[in-house]
Design a protein that fits this description.
Length: about 350
């Protein structure tokens, strides 16, 4: 990996860690109804609110970086090559892991929580029929909606690249409007909300990167502070767009500055995680489902000592992150060593031949 790309990879690593923590929190803490100690309940609420406050810092920069990294395919690469590299390769992973998650979560719930009533129509992974699963995947009602979004975003950005500014304006309006006029599908709402960041990276990422590297935030601290204050007020009014844009700049500036000041090792933990985001993203949801189903039953039964309950409530997201990260890295290594990485890239027999690229 080129040295200049390490800080970008570290941001990807941070983002996938935040995604794992997000899913760890929402599948566990809201369902704890039998905690023994009042402090356990307080800690659970703290995690829920902390998770909420992290929202503007989680996906926007992830999508901006994703758009920035594929800008060459938007401007220079033909559709045939793009179809293979940027669309089909992602569709393969989305379809394969969509099926694997569906089967895994269905069987985990039947085993660990057979009495649980699943919202079969709201998530493809909980579908009770093949048609329900397909419908959920087509409407992005899946925890894999990020992959769905990448396909949609790339296709639209390449098709609409001649009209960048007006399209960006429409995407900004859509990102705001979706918070007040949501679609029936939660995943599609996220797809609409975040396209502005991907498009910004794909169309104007190079210019924004140059500006970010050269700007001295200390010299414009007053303007930055004022923008941040307005952004926070709007965020509380359910308009997170400005705060998300500010978070993109601040996160990139932080990681870029750290790389300029300190030598970054390619084997740095965040770099390794950032190089395997898809593996961690696709595998973690299955593990988290198993953890939450088992531990929710244990916690609500009040069968653990109070000290153990407090410890679990305090550290669960970090423990889940550690296990999911190691598991994702392990699955990727096994996939590469034994199966030609078929779990994360389509088999060569199903891709375009080299002569057509």
């Amino acid at each position: 990996m080129k040295q200049k790309a390490l800080w970008i990879n570290q941001i990807k690593g941070l983002c996938i860690c935040l995604v794992v923590i997000y899913h760890s929190v929402i599948t566990f803490y809201p369902h704890l109804i039998g905690l023994q100690h009042p402090l356990s309940g307080l800690l659970a609420k703290c995690w829920v609110y902390f998770n909420l406050y992290l929202a503007p810092f989680r996906m926007p920069v992830f999508f901006f970086i994703s758009g920035y990294l594929i800008r060459r395919y938007i401007d220079e690469v033909d559709w045939r090559t793009s179809l293979d590299k940027r669309i089909w390769s992602i569709v393969w992973v989305l379809a394969l892991w969509g099926v694997l998650q569906w089967q895994a979560l269905t069987h985990l719930n039947a085993w660990l929580a057979p009495e649980r009533e699943l919202a079969t129509a709201s998530n493809a992974a909980y579908a009770d029929s093949l048609s329900g699963f397909v419908r959920g995947m087509l409407t992005a009602s899946t925890s894999l909606w990020y992959l769905y979004a990448l396909v949609v975003y790339f296709t639209l950005c390449k098709l609409l690249s001649r009209w960048k500014l007006p399209v960006l304006g429409l995407l900004a309006l859509a990102s705001i409007a979706i918070n007040f006029l949501p679609l029936p599908w939660w995943g599609m709402n996220s797809v609409v909300r975040n396209m502005i960041y991907y498009s910004l990276g794909a169309w104007y990422g190079a210019a924004l990167m140059t500006w970010m590297k050269s700007v001295n935030l200390r010299r414009i601290w007053l303007a930055t502070g004022a923008f941040a204050a307005v952004s926070v007020v709007l965020w509380f009014a359910n308009v997170p767009l400005l705060l998300s844009l500010l978070s993109i700049v601040l996160i990139m500036k932080l990681f870029y500055s750290l790389e300029q000041r300190y030598a970054v090792n390619p084997n740095n933990l965040l770099n390794v995680i950032g190089s395997n985001t898809i593996a961690i993203y696709t595998t973690h949801r299955i593990l988290i489902e198993a953890f939450s189903l088992f531990l929710i039953g244990e916690m609500n039964a009040a069968s653990w000592p109070v000290w153990a309950e407090l410890t679990l409530v305090l550290v669960y997201p970090f423990a889940s992150l550690l296990i999911c990260t190691l598991a994702g890295l392990g699955v990727r290594k096994i996939s590469t060593a034994l199966f030609g990485d078929v779990f994360f890239s389509p088999p060569s027999t199903l891709t375009l031949s080299p002569s057509t690229r």
